[in-house]
Amino acid sequence: MAATPAPASAVLRVLVPAGWTPERPAAWALADAAGAVREHGRGTPDTWPAAAWREAILAPGAARVIGLALPPVPPARLASAVRYALEDRLASGGDALHVVSTPQRDGRVRAVAVDRAWLATWASRFDAIVALPTRVAVDADWHWYASASADERFMLMADGTALAAVGPDASDVLLALRSARANDAAPARIVAHGADASAFAAWTDALGVPVVAGSPWRWDAPAAAHVPAPPDLAFSSAVSSDPYAGAAAWRVALKPAARIALAALAVYALGLAGAWAYARIDAWRHERAVVAAARDAGVADADNVATALPALAAQYRNALHRAGKQAPDDALPLLATAAPALAALPHGALRRATYASGAWTFETAPLASDVRTRLDHAFADAGLTAIAATAGDGLRMRVTR
Q: Is the dihedral of CA 362, 70, 159, 116 positive or negative?
């Protein structure tokens, strides 16, 4: 079937299941400028309608969506804090996963993780890539979203975490509910969107939580106005917030005014290149000075700044120790600063403490939510940054200055 033409303002949304490749058909929906879906279909990319903006909607099984509670983190450090918090919750790690998150609001973020290598094989076909569970709102209830396709079913928990491919026996939900009850976070009810009403009574008995009917739902429905913008998994960080700007960009570039703007941009780029070259020369001079200082101090193997700086720091630390003073990166000063906050832990809650690379890592038994809140505030009042993550049957906190 040949691709059908579409207005320049059209938005094509494609539901991408786990393991999808461009040779396989996928469900698609074509929306107009107002967001209303006016055409549905299923096919391979060469049969999709033309559109100004292509958006991939990752099915719940294709991406992990996890809600995280984090202490106040500067925006520049949020990405590393999210990866640390996800370390014990994802089977893969490091460069194997492409991870994005929402901005931090009231101490919470929603993180989305997807296999980087798989994403790279088809990401260039789309202008934006978002996970399906991030297109619906999060509130105090749990929401079960059902549809005709098992690829589209998921449970959205109150913390923003999504459980994919929930079976009809609700076994996955039962496990999640047991865990939520253990942490005093069980929902008051589950709102079912699109599920068979006759199943509600059986679900209520099996789950021990009331299940009520919600509004109808489709995967291609436009996101409500009150839903925050979902994090975009596209590799380019320059994705426009206007879904229709990309379609007009090529036509605008042909106009004289755009040519002048492009010329100005080229001049600006040359200026940036000159500034960058100067900065690199200045950094090279600085690195040479550091290496020379290390050699003057008797460091024989100081070939570059990466080896010279740690050696100089070690000499400085040893000199302070010989004088009976403490060094800035010693373990005891950091522990002394953290001790008043740790004193608020229940008796026997602290299981293990280790120090490495300027940070203390504390492993504790599971903590009640009010205890965790007081602990986060106590660390912040002491001028420390604490990042916590669930580890096995307890909690692990990494504390730095």
A: negative
